[in-house]
Every structure is written in structure tokens, then in C-alpha cells.
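Figure S4 source data
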Amino acid sequence: MSAEVRQFPCLSDNFGVLIHDPESGTTVAIDVPDAAPYLAILEDTGWKLSHILITHHHWDHVQGLDELKEKTGAHVIGPERSRQKIAGLDKTVEDGDKVSTGPYTVEAIGTPGHTIDQISWYFPDLKIAHTGDTLFSLGCGRIFEGDAEMMWASLSTLKRKLPVDTTIYCGHEYTQSNARFSLTIEPDNAALKTRAIEIDTLRAAGKPTLPTTMAQELATNPFLRADEPSVKAALGMTDASDAAVFAEIRTRKDNA
């Protein structure tokens, strides 16, 4: 099974994503920070939007939803936990639910922490996931509604469920600042140092740093690596729990 994927900037630092199946004509949007960029690409490609998947209720992920739904008639699927917060949901899901979007089966992975309702969407046949504002390239979302233990559990779930060759899309272009912070946690991580240089090169050329892969994140993202002995040692927390180490890393990033 194959797909054409378009990623494009929205607002100041958000990304929009469209996933298109040429055979069936199915086209899936993930989050709608702003309707205009989606409508422009749909017009340019001739694709007809069939489904919209929502990760969470924050305004910069849903403010374009009403307009995009009205103009395309797409079927909107989002978290049950934000049914009262997001107008326009046609179907809601809980953790572990699977939905069909044309030929694609999509698994809803509950990843609360940034918000309580956050869903990460996993397309196993395409080896693609969209992790919203839970997992970023070299980062993770700020914890607004959950707590550090909840967020660590969500990241651990992604580590367990997403194969290393999964392509990861997410909500924001934060990678360059995340790389600088990551180097303060693991200054001796060779893979991270190499990646930071690549990221600087991409940004200098005005290019996106996303998507990323699960393999890259496992090797270089300190928020996913809070259980690594080398990270614990670097923080002087050798005997601490994984969740406590994660909480320390998140606190340092919040204060950076």
C-alpha cells in the first residue's frame, strides 16, 4: 500500500499534513491549524478531501476545521475526551480504537500529557504516525493538562507501539531549538551532534526538519531516552526512576 504525503507550513510554526491514496482517491487531513493552505493544495492537486483526523483541542490545531469541513464535506474524527470542546466531530475515538479511512486502517493511540485528550494517529500499513504535540522531533510537548508521569507513559507507549522504521509527522517546527537543548543533556551523543548540524543546514536553507523517524528519535531525543543509563548518568540521576528523569529533563526545557 502506498500514499502521497504533503506536509506544508501553517500559521507561524505549525504543519499541515495530507495523505492521499491515488487508487481510491481517499485524502486524509491531520489537524487544521488554518483552512487556507489545505484548500490551496486540494485545488492544486485536484484531490477531494474525505477525512479529517484531529489530535487534540488546542486552537492552533482546530481553528480551521469548521471552514475546511464546510467547504469539503469531509468526515471528521477526533478524541472522545474533547467531544464538548471541538465542534464538528462526526466520530470520536478512545485509545486503541481503529478507524477506516478509505483503504487505510488508522489506530488511535491515546497519548495524554500535553492535553488529556491527545490522540496520536498511526497508519501501520504506511508506516506513518502523526504524534500531534506529544512527540516532536528532538522534543515533546509542554505538559499543560497532565503531569510528567502521564507524559512519560505516553512516550513509552509510542516507543513500544511504533516500529523503528515509522515515519513521524507532528504539529510544529521546533527542531532547531530542541536540538540545542538536547545537546545540553547529552553533549557527548555522537548521533545527536551529527543531527544538530544537519538540522542547522536545513533551516539555513529554509527547509523543514520534518518528518523524522522513530529510529532517529530513539537515538537522539532526550525525552524518549530518559530510561537510558547514559542519560541518567549525565544528569547525576543514576538511581532515579525513568519518570523522574523525564520530569527533570522536561523541567529544564521549560526553564531554558
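Figure S5 source data
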Amino acid sequence: MRQSPTLRPTAWPRSPRYPYVTGVLLLLLAVAEVLHSRITSTTVLATLPFVVPPLLWRRSEPRVGLLVVPAALLNFLCRPELLLTVAVAGVMGLYSLARHRVLHPAVLITGTITGALLVNAGHVAMGVYDLGGRAPAVGADGSLSYFTESFVLAVGVVATVGVADAFRSREESRQAREAAQRELIAMERRHAATQERAAIARELHDIVAHSVSVIAVQAESATYTTPDLSPPARDGFQQIAASARSALTELRHLLSVLRADDAAEDAPLLPQPTLDSLDALLEAHRSGGGEVTLHTEGTRPPLLPPSLELTAYRIVQEALTNARRHARGAAVDIRLAYADDEVRIRITDDGPGPQGSPHDSGGHGLSGMRERANLLGGRLTCGPAGPGGGFLIEAELPVRAGAKSFAEGVYE
């Protein structure tokens, strides 16, 4: 059975509870040692609170080691019989300093060994190594043995700092590998997305663009090849050809966006339509035989977010498209109301109503309009206009600067 990652011994030291659990255990060990050894030294008891409790926060604040290590050396100076608690706490404090690079390893080793030598010299000066009533004579034969503790402490210091620095290097290497792996996965995803866009662009170019271009050519040539063509019919064919050419222009723009790679993201794009483009849109609808009126209420704010103007334009465009498709010959009434904090759009037609409405078409036009309004923090509702028939679309688009950057990034 596969062991859970949280139960692995190597994962436990990375747990956020690890410093607190080990710190409490060390604190209990300190109490047990003090009671068992019947320590009464004021200096030893006074330094213990600076040795053990700060280790509880050694991970969040590794600089506590700068307090723990000197306090441990001072405790050892006052009590040559080194307490196990003090030894373990000193190692843990030194490890934290090295692991988090609070000080450079060379500075940390030099400073700690210097402290150990001073403690050793203090022990010698205090006569800790008095043999048979005779004080040790530094420089005499065998006097170097008095500094054995310094040697042992120096070895421990170098080993602790070396191990901590090795773990730090390994952790940095692991993080670097993970970052490189994440970047590789992101690159692969971007590459896959680029390939998918290229495939979609090819399909659009080979199928849709070809079909639309054929429509444009046939409509254009019909005015010359069809005999006895009436002027209204000739104008109708010209309108079909113009609409097809316009569709080809937008399709080429879409293909350029789909085929653009990361290096071409800043390439200039065609200007997006705004509320100023509504007149041309309505005129195009009228030229195709449709009837549409536009009523405006209120004063248009001087600086509307481009995303709001684009959304309003697309809603009107989709509503007119649905009217031509599902309510041919219906009169469309558009009311555009400006307020200080929002723009309201109300579009109605006098078509047949729910029967044959966009609800039954299986298309995505209405859901697309609703998504555009939602992205701006607004709302869009649609449904039957009333018992007499017709279809109603109402939208409320808040004038909010916060929606500008987000919606521009989505639509442009």
C-alpha cells in the first residue's frame, strides 16, 4: 500500500506543526533535567528561557538563533556539565541560522567557534580542569587537552552548518527543478493551444472563407449575367456582395488573431466598433429591407469604457441579426438610455413572438450577449415582448472603470 505523503518521515519536518511539537518536547526535557539534576544556579536557570522557548518560532523567525546560540554557550560556561537540553537547543538554533542563511556560513562558523573558544578559556580560568588540587598550567605538557571541548564544539559547529547548507542547496535545486518543470508544462500548453488555433484557422480558411468568397463573387456577377434584372434586385445582389466582402474582412482579421503567436501579440488590430458605429449598422439593416428605429434618452457620458461601447454594439448587432433571421420583415425598435452609472438598452420587434424566436434556433447568440453583459457586471434578459407577440431584449450595462481592462482583454 502506498504511504500517504503526510505520513512519510521525510515529509514530517516540513509540516508547519513540526517546530512547535519539537519545541514543546525540548521544553519538557529541560524541565525534567532541571528537576533531576537539582540545578540551583541562578545564571543557568536564567539563561534556559533564552535557549529553549524561542525555538518554537525558529521557522517563522529564524533569527531567534542569534539569541539561542549565545545563550546556550553562556549556559555551558556557567555549568560545565553540558545539559542535553542545551546541547540540542544550540544545535537546532545553529541549524536554523545556517538553513535560512541569516548569516553567511563562514561568518556563522567563525563566530560560533570563537564563542566556543571563549567558553573553553573561561572554564580553564575558573579551574574547571583542576587535577588533584593543582590548577592547569597552560603551555605545560598535555595542556592542549584542556581545549578538547573547543575541538569537539568546533567539529559539531562545522558539521551542523555544513548539513544545513547542504539541505538548503538541495531545497533550492528542487524548487528550481519544479519551476523549470512548470515552465515546460506551460510552454507545452501554449504550443498545443497555438497548434489548435492554427487548425481552427485552417478550417475557417479552407471552408468558411472559401464559401463566403464564392457568395461574394456570385452575387457580384449576378448583376451582370442575369438579364432583365430589376433595379431593386440589382441593389439586393450588391448588398449581398458587400455583406460577403465585409464578412471576409472580419474573417481575415479573425484568422490573423488565431494564427498570431506570442511574438505577435502586440500586432496592430482593426479598431473595434463603438456606439458611433450604430448608425452604419442600422443603415446596413435598412438597406437589407429591414425596418429599425433608434431612440436615445439622456446625455451620453463623454468617456465611456471601450468595453461597454463594444458590448452595446454587439448586443444591437445580434438583436438585428436575430430579427432578420427569425422575424423577417418585423419592425425593430431600439431604445438607448444613458445614466450616470449605467447604460440601458431595450430592443423590441413586432415579429411572431416565441414561435420561431432565437430560443428555438439552437444558436449561441443570446447566450453570447448575456455573457458579454455579465463580464461587465451587468445583466441581460430576453423573452416574449407581450401577449401580442414580438420579442424583447433588455440589458443594463454599468459604467464602471473596473470592467474596462478585463473586458478589453477578453474582446480585443
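Residues 197 and 343 are 35 Å apart (CA to CA). The domain at 291-411 is CATH 3.30.565.10 (Heat Shock Protein 90).
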